[in-house]
Amino acid sequence: MSDIKDVVKEKYGQAALRAAAGEKNTCCGSSPSSCCSGGDPITSDLYDQLQKNELPETAMLASLGCGNPTALAGLKPGEVVLDLGSGGGIDVLLSAKRVSPGGKAYGLDMTDEMLTLARSNQKKAGVENVEFLKGEIEHIPLPDSSVDVIISNCVINLSADKDRVLREAFRVLKPGGRFAVSDVVTRGDIPGQIRKSMLLWAGCVAGALDENDYRSKLSNAGFEDIGIEPTRIYRSEDARSFLADEGIDIEKVGPLVDEKFMSAFVRARKPIQR
Questions:
Q1: Residue 198: pLDDT band by 50, 70, 90 thresholds?
Q2: Staple partner for 81: which of 95, 126, 153, 207, CB 3.0–4.6 Å?
Q3: pLDDT of 80 strictly over 80
């Protein structure tokens, strides 16, 4: 587990430095040309132009998400929001505007470079009701029952201890609080050589849960009203873009991953204690 965490931390630290230098990042490789010629099928076109106009360019360049949880979470003024794995801060800054007035948005990240970039983006955006915290999503540095909504964007799949992440999310949510994350989710068996690739863990795919396992883990953590809504379902041609750089036989493996993984919006709720 520590090896996975080290790879993720290194990859996302490098991503922050590239964004700060004005370079675009992709979910599936180390540079825009590494495996995504023609565009990254996971991270592209997630935010509309109005949302892009609200944010510094470096926040958009650092985005490595697979969805747009702020558009789906139903955020309301006065709520407290926590973004797990907040990266360059794009979803935190968007959330902070949606929960104003009276609300607050926290961003949690373990990577120093991303936190530096996020705080710089916050300053550029002039958003005050934001706080970026250093820590791991398996050990959230907030009190019990302190958050109304938890969002995350293609980060929980990177954790090697997802049960711990979901228990922690449940702990910090208030009774009735909402879990509303975008994540990569799989359907059916995925070839072992993909699961074993450390770089693919850091690239959003190999650590993804099967949708039924995701439901089970959320239920075991205590959540109810669980739902998984596909937002993008990927074909074998989409897989070609991130398998090539890993030395994987695309012609052999490609058909085996056709429609087997998807970006999804994962919803759940912490029960209201009576």
A1: very low
A2: 95
A3: yes
In a domain? residue 164: yes
In a domain, 55, yes or no: yes
- Count of the separate structural domains present in the chain: 1
Distance CA 79, CA 45 (A): 27
Domain harbouring 36, CATH code = 3.40.50.150
**Which has the higher per-residue pLDDT, 27 or 8?**
8
What does the chain come to in residues? 274
Domain that includes residue 154, residue range: 2-269
SS (H, E, C) 200-231: HHHCCCCCCEEHHHHHHHHHHHCCEEEEEEEE
- Give the Cα separation of 25 and 14 in Å (integer): 10
Tokens of 151: 């969002």
Question: Please, how many CA atoms are within 13 Å of residue 10, restricted to the half-sphere of its CB?
Answer: 11
Say how many C-beta atoms besides its own lie within 10 A of residue 255's C-beta: 11
pTM over 0.85: no
Q: What is the pLDDT of residue 158?
A: 85
The confidence score (pLDDT) of residue 249 equals 77
With a cut of 90, say whether residue 175 has pLDDT above it. Answer: yes
